[in-house]
Design goal:
Blueprint: H1 4-7, H2 11-15, H3 20-28, H4 35-45, E1 49-51, H5 59-73, E2 78-81, H6 84-87, H7 91-100, H8 110-113, H9 115-123, E3 129-132, H10 139-147, E4 152-154, H11 170-189, E5 195-199, H12 209-225, E6 230-236, H13 241-258, E7 264-270, H14 280-297, E8 301-303, H15 316-328, H16 341-363, H17 368-378, E9 396-399, E10 405-409, H18 417-427, H19 435-446, E11 456-457, E12 465-466
Parallel strand pairs: 1-8, 2-3, 4-5, 5-6, 6-7, 7-8
Antiparallel strand pairs: 9-10, 11-12
Helix pairs in contact: 5-15, 9-10, 12-13, 12-16, 13-14, 13-16, 14-15
C-alpha cells in the first residue's frame, strides 16, 4: 500500500512509517469525519463547505493556526499547506530550515515533522484535514499524509507539474501520480476512501473553463482507472458569473459522461486566484462574489481567499474574516438571487462541447498517460502561461466585453470551426490583434479585478466608456 511496490519509496523512507495494518487501524478508527464524509454531507444539504488555505513552518505555530481558524469560522475542512522545499522533494533543506529558521518556511514541512506530528495536527481540530502542495512527485508526502490520518490529498500529474515546475518531464510526474492514485485504490479496497482533489486552477492566469475542466477530467479518468473512489474537481473563478456557474454545473455533467458511476465527484470552486485588489473593502467584495458564484454553480466546496491576498500570506484574523465573508454569500437571505439561465445554458453547452473536442481524440487513442504526454508535445493539449518547458503555452486567452474568458488563440487545441468562430466572434476580433496592443489588453485582463477602474464596459484599449446607470 505505502511501500516500495505501490509507491516506489526507498526502503529507508518506508522504515520510518507505521506498517500497513497500523495505518488502516488508525484511519478506520478516526474519531471524526473524513473529508469524503464531509463532502457527501454537504452534497446532501445543498450548501457548500468552506475551506481556507493555511500553513506555517513550526509545529506549535501550525497547531495554533488550525485551532484559531476552527474557533473563528468553523470551516468544514481545514488545510495543511506544504512548504516549497518539501513540494520539490528537497526534504533535507526543509528539515534544515525547520531547525534553524522555521519562520522562513512558506508552509508546513510535513515530511520533516513526521507522521506522529501529523497525527497531532489531525487530532487537534474537529474538521478533517487536506494536504495542499504543488509537487510533481508527491509519493513520500502522500505516504506521510495518510499515515497522519489525513483523508484528502490535492494534486495530479499535469496540474501539479506544468504550472509549478520548469523542467520535470510530464511522463515522470504522470508516473509518480499514478502510483499515488494506485495507493488510493488499494486503500479504498481496504475500506478507507481518500478524497483526491484535482487542481483545475492550473496557472491561475486567465485559464479558460474548457481547458481547466479538460485537464482535471483527464486526471480524474486516470485516477479512477487506478481505483480512486472520491474526486474533487476544482475550478478557478474566472470572473464572469454566467460562465463560471456554467463551468461548475458542467462538472457533474462531464463526470457522468467520462467517469464510472461508482466514483463520487464533487465540484469545488477556488475563489479568484488572480491579481487581487489592494483595498480591503474591494477584496472582500471579490471574496463575497466568489462564494456567491460557488453557491449558484452548485459547488460542494469553496476554497476561500482573504483581504490580505494582494500582500502575501494572510494572518489568522484575515483568514477567519475571509471565511466569514464567504459564509455570508451562502445565507438563505440571498435565495432570491437568480441568473439569466438561458445565458448559463448557452455557456454550458459550449464549455462542454469544447471539453469534448479536446478529450475525445485522446480517449479514442492508446494508453492514456502516453496519449497525454504526446498531446502536450504536439500542442493538442496545452495550458496558458506555463512555467514548464514541457508545455507549449501557445494558448492565448483573453476576456470578451462581458469579462468572460475566451480563446484569442487556441494554439494547437483541436477545436471545431464552430468553436473557434464563436471565440473569435465574442472577442470581436477585427484585425487579428497583435504586438503591443494585444499585450496591453491581456495585461489589463490579468488585472481585471485589481484595476481601480473596474466597472467600465470592456472595449479595446482607447475605446472604453463608463456604465451610465
Amino acid at each position: 500500500m505505502l511501500d516500495e511496490d505501490t509507491l516506489g519509496l526507498a526502503p529507508g523512507a518506508v522504515a520510518e512509517l507505521p506498517d500497513r495494518q497500523e495505518i488502516l487501524r488508525h484511519l478506520t478508527g478516526l474519531p471524526k469525519k473524513t473529508v469524503p464524509d464531509v463532502l457527501r454531507a454537504a452534497e446532501r444539504r445543498g450548501t457548500p463547505v468552506i475551506q481556507p488555505r493555511c500553513g506555517v513552518g513550526g509545529h506549535d505555530e501550525m497547531l495554533t493556526l488550525l485551532r484559531s481558524l476552527e474557533t473563528g469560522a468553523a470551516p468544514g475542512i481545514l488545510s495543511v499547506t506544504i512548504d516549497s522545499h518539501t513540494r520539490l522533494g528537497h526534504f533535507d533543506a526543509a528539515a534544515a530550515t525547520l531547525r534553524e529558521h522555521p519562520h522562513h518556511l512558506n508552509g508546513y514541512p510535513l515530511v520533516a515533522h513526521g507522521w506522529q506530528r501529523g497525527r497531532e495536527l489531525n487530532e487537534s481540530v474537529a474538521a478533517p484535514l487536506e494536504v495542499r502542495h504543488g509537487s510533481p512527485d508527491a509519493r513520500l508526502l502522500f505516504a506521510v499524509s495518510v499515515a497522519s490520518g489525513i483523508t484528502s490529498f490535492e494534486g495530479g500529474g499535469i496540474s501539479y507539474n506544468l504550472p509549478y515546475s520548469k523542467d520535470v518531464p510530464l511522463e515522470r510526474s504522470l508516473r509518480a501520480w499514478r502510483q499515488v492514485d494506485r495507493a488510493c485504490g488499494e486503500l479504498a479496497r481496504s475500506g478507507v476512501v481518500v478524497d483526491r482533489e484535482l487542481f483545475g486552477t492550473l496557472t491561475a492566469v486567465l485559464v479558460p473553463p474548457s481547458i481547466s475542466l479538460a485537464i482535471t477530467l483527464l486526471e480524474a479518468i486516470a485516477a479512477a482507472a487506478e481505483g480512486v473512489r472520491c474526486l474533487s474537481v476544482a475550478y478557478p473563478q474566472g470572473g464572469e458569473i454566467h460562465q463560471d456557474v456554467a463551468a461548475l454545473r458542467s462538472v457533474r455533467v462531464l463526470a457522468a459522461r467520462y467517469l464510472p458511476p461508482e466514483v463520487d465527484v464533487f465540484p469545488v470552486l477556488h475563489e479568484f486566484m488572480g491579481v487581487f485588489p489592494e483595498e480591503a473593502d474591494r477584496a472582500e467584495a471579490l471574496i463575497f462574489y466568489g462564494a456567491l458564484t460557488g453557491r449558484l454553480g452548485g459547488a460542494t466546496k469553496i476554497i476561500s481567499k482573504t483581504r490580505q491576498e494582494a500582500y502575501g500570506v494572510p494572518d489568522a484574523e484575515a483568514n477567519v474574516h475571509g471565511m466569514r465573508t464567504s459564509a455570508l454569500a451562502l445565507s438563505g437571505l440571498l435565495d432570491f438571487i437568480t441568473l439569466d439561465e438561458s445565458r448559463v445554458e448557452e455557456e454550458a453547452y459550449w464549455i462542454q462541447r469544447e471539453v469534448s473536442e479536446i478529450l475525445d481524440p485522446l480517449l479514442g487513442g492508446g494508453e492514456l498517460h502516453s496519449e497525454i504526454d504526446a498531446a502536450f508535445r504536439t500542442g493538442r493539449l496545452d495550458i496558458p502561461f506555463s512555467a514548464s518547458i514541457h508545455a507549449r503555452s501557445e494558448i492565448v486567452p483573453k476576456r470578451d466585453a462581458s469579462g468572460a474568458l475566451r480563446y484569442f488563440s487556441p494554439g494547437g487545441l483541436p477545436f471545431s470551426r464552430a468553436s473557434a468562430d464563436r471565440n473569435d466572434r465574442l472577442l470581436g476580433r477585427d484585425d487579428g490583434g497583435s504586438g503591443t496592443r494585444l499585450i496591453k489588453e491581456i495585461t489589463r485582463d490579468i488585472n481585471h479585478f485589481a484595476a481601480r477602474d473596474h466597472g467600465r464596459v470592456r472595449q479595446h484599449l482607447g475605446q472604453e466608456r463608463k456604465w451610465t446607470t
